[in-house]
Amino acid sequence: MAEESCIVVAGTAVISGLAFLWTKYRNQGSILVIGGLSGLGHETVQLYQAKGAEVAILDIKDEASLPEVPDIPASKYYKCDVSDNSEVKAILNKVRVELGSPDILINCAAIPKRSSIVNISSVVAHLYPAGLSHYASSKAGLSALHHCLEAEARWLGYTKQIEFFLVEVGQMDTPLFSWIKPPNSLLAPVLEPVYAAEKIVSAVSSGGGGVIRLPMYASWVCGYDMLPVRVQRFARYIMGVDEALAHCK
């Protein structure tokens, strides 16, 4: 778990570098999905591949270590550590040569004469669960980075070329957090990755940029900090936010 957390934090730190390199090398071409061997990334790869798209899958995992993941035709896998900026640049050059320059980055859909960048964050960026300080802080940083990049692109006049989407999801049924007890299945149901992927693809296809929050409760957690402290603590108690990791002590 500690190793995965380091990867998450390091990955957040270089997303801006990915965005820069992608805008430099992009052209009409393939779809680039980072972390596409499992979970939400894998579901997104399958959805785009079903549409006939060529997908470049970047993942730190070894493909052979995931026998449960079926072969995905019309896709090509590249082992890549996104915390290594030089490795990312080399892989992007390789993708450009083999599949064409990607005009879709991460979990995005191409729009004619426009491109999209989608950052996958989490509701923990606003809820700060006890025991998840490393993960929550990295996701909070990613959400902030999204807003900064979108503002900078708007300021520099790139909004006609690039659309930015931020996705903040609740707990999903993926291996990363399978060991965590869902805090409240009624108020905060666990998301199926395929459902989230479908919502992302649909929203990006519609265009316009913006923030996607799933499930329903994720739409109001951003207002959590505006509540009085006592109300916040009561809400945390009702939701079971801080008890989710109690069995892991």
UniProtKB/TrEMBL annotation:
Pfam families: adh_short. It comes from the Eukaryota. Keywords: Oxidoreductase. One of its GO terms (molecular function) is oxidoreductase activity, acting on the CH-OH group of donors, NAD or NADP as acceptor. PANTHER family: PKSB (PTHR24322), RETINOL DEHYDROGENASE 10 (PTHR24322:SF736). Belongs to the short-chain dehydrogenases/reductases (SDR) family. This is NAD(P)-binding protein. It comes from Aspergillus tamarii.
